[in-house]
Amino acid sequence: MGIGASRIDTFETQNPLRPERPPITGQSGLEALQRAEAIDGYRKQVAASSINRLARAGQDYVPSPFSVNRSIPPPNPMEPWPSGQVIWMDPTADEGLPHTRPPYYICMSRTFPTADLANTLLHERVHLSQRANKSAWDKLLAELWSFKPWVGTIPSDIDSRRRLNPDLLWAPFYCWKDQYVPLALFQSTTQPDLQEIDLVWWDTKSRTLHREAPPGWTEFFGNNPAGEHPFEIAAYLVASNPSQNKAYQVLKPRLSELPTKEIF
Predict the structure, then answer these.
(1) Domain, as residue range, for 63
(2) Taking the model in full, what pTM does it have?
(3) Residues near 71 by beta carbon (within 8 Å), at least 6 away in sequence
(4) 105 lies in the same domain as 157
């Protein structure tokens, strides 16, 4: 996604250089995770949720203890995505699933496939943009996708099965067309797996749970595996760049409106 000349000039004036943050491991990685935890309490929330704790049993949520000799593809300076800083993690951490932690960390397994690294980093950098520029994202999502933040309640038996996602902790619920809240629920309550979830929709008007997509959802968003949240949908679409997806067709031309603010 390119941006116009005026946006490039503004970006280069305000941000002559993106912060250079080499990947970290070991003690530096531990200190970064401690900083993140003080902000979002992710691991504390995992510990407090029996199903999320069980899904992560036996994992080591720690950085790689030694340096990792791998290069990091830089962000495209023509696009508004923050650089972030990679923490090379133990391969078992969150089943090796990449994710972000505040304020600008990207947690990646040290064994993550090189062929997928650039696209995955793009996905995670979109999440960093969402962290840094929530109001701008909320404006786009409301105007283009009919998604708005939601502060209602979900029955405890449903909420207790919800997979905690560190990319979404700070803005967990969004409502589509003022009625439907997408959720990612673990398929199994006895052997939960982070990658085995059901996408469901909480109907805020009837207060019922739907396993079938709401009318118009699939036609607009497609069969998106990241459909649990508009932030995930957007990151997935930006990284995959699907030309025929209707949601992306309306979003792509407006991405240049996002602030180019870095996270310091």
Answers:
(1) 5-132
(2) 0.92
(3) none
(4) no
Amino acid symbol at 14 = Q
Q: What are phi and psi of 89, to 5 degrees?
A: -105, 160
Number of domains composing the chain: 2
Examine the domain organization and report whether 153 and 127 are in the same domain.
Answer: no
Distance CA 101, CA 124 (A): 10
174 and 239 within one domain: yes
CA distance 224 to 143: 20
pLDDT tens digits for 39-96? 999 999 999 999 999 999 999 999 999 999 999 998 888 889 999 999 999 999 999 9
Do β-strands 208-210 and 197-203 pair in parallel, antiparallel, or remain unpaired?
A: antiparallel
Q: Residue 259's closest CA among 85, 5, 14? A: 14
- Which value, to the nearest 10 degrees, does the dihedral of the CA atoms of residues 42, 248, 1, 36 take? 0
